[in-house]
Structure formats: structure tokens, C-alpha cells
Amino acid sequence: MEKEQGRSGRPRSERARVAVLHAVDDLLVEVGYAGMTMKGIAERAQVSRQTVYRWWSTTAEILLEASAGDAAEELAVEPSDDPVQDLTAFLEALARFLAHSPAGIAYRALVGEAQHDSGVAALLAAEDVLGNSARAVVERALGPGPAVPVDQATALLVGPVFFWILSGRDPERFAPREHAEAFMREVHAGGHGRAGR
Question: Which of 99, 112, 188, 193 has the maximum number of C-beta atoms within 10 A of its C-beta?
């Protein structure tokens, strides 16, 4: 597909869109989130600023789109018959994504910016990059009629990894299998009293 609709309804070149998304990834590494500008992104992508503004309003919107697309691919887990194994595979992928992936670095930059920019916070709330990827794995692990709400269970799964990586701990020392097993114990315990209180 060579063209698709932009925000204004005009067709947009897929080649130019991809160039902009690559440019924002490169600039994040080179100059950091604070150093990125729409002008700089346009120049790196070799498109006009008008072209960039036609599709996105802010650098955060571009960065989130770049991050979300890669996250969906990098965090995808092939289902197996073992829920703990699926959860472990997801947690391993999540730790790699947050610690090493350019898309994960972009997401971390947005989370940091969201702490003092309500517009970025609203973007992240509307496009739950990590939650969307985790939810499919969590729903399979919980099965039909889960005792714990899926959103709560998703936060329980993702939260510790997120804290571990963002607080500067060594990602190699995180124990995905142990966390997956603890997660399953926790959600099943939640279904037998605590969640219903």
C-alpha cells in the first residue's frame, strides 16, 4: 500500500510516514526527547514540516506511533498450552523491550515526559502500548470468567517489570519465570476472597 489517509483526510505517502518514524527513533538516541523538534524530524526524514504537521501535532504523537507499532511486534507471544510459559515469554520480551529496544527507549521517554506534560499523559492513557500487548496473554492465562478484572491483572503483571527497569535495576537479574508463577498465585488468590471483599 503506497498511500493512506492522513489526519486531514488527504492521502499520505507510506514512504514518507516510515521515514518520519525512523527519523524520530534516530533523533531520540542522538539528541534525546527534549532536543527533538518537528523541524529536526522533518529535516532528518527529508520531508517538509508541512507534511509532518499534516499527520501529527506533536513530537510525542510521532514517538508514540513509532513505539506502538514496534511494541506490538516485539511483545507478541505465540500461544502455548502452558499459561506460565506464555507469561514468562511475555515478561522476557517486555524486559528486553524496556531495557534495550529503541521503541522501548522511546516509550520510556514518553513516560518521563508524561510526569509533567498532561498532553503526553493523555496520549499514553489513550494508547496503552504495554497494556494492549499484555492483555492478550493475561486473558489467555486467566481463562473465561476471570476472578480478577483483566485490567487489574494486566497492571499486576506489567507493573513489577516496569518498576524494575525504570528504577535502574539490572534487567538480567529480573526473574520472569518466578514473576509469572507469583502472578498466577496472586490472581487465583484474588479470586478466593480478597478480590471479592
Answer: 99
Q: Which domains does the chain have, with CATH numbers?
A: 3-57 (1.10.10.60), 66-196 (1.10.357.10)
CB atoms within 10 A of CB 4: 11
Mutual angle of helices 150-166 and 102-114, in 10-degree steps: 100
Give the pLDDT score at 12. 56
> How does pLDDT run across 168-177, given as a tens digit for each residue?
999 999 999 9
Q: Round to whole Å and give the CA distance between 8 and 145.
A: 42
Cα dist from 6 to 9, 16, 40, 169, whole Å: 5, 12, 21, 40
Is it the case that residue 178 has pLDDT exceeding 70? Answer: yes
Check residue 45 and report its DSSP letter.
H
Residues 130/94, Cβ–Cβ less than 8 Å = yes
Indicate the burial class of 192 (C-beta count within 10 angstroms; 0-12, 13-18, 19 or more): exposed
The pair phi, psi for residue 13, each rounded to 5°, is -75, 125
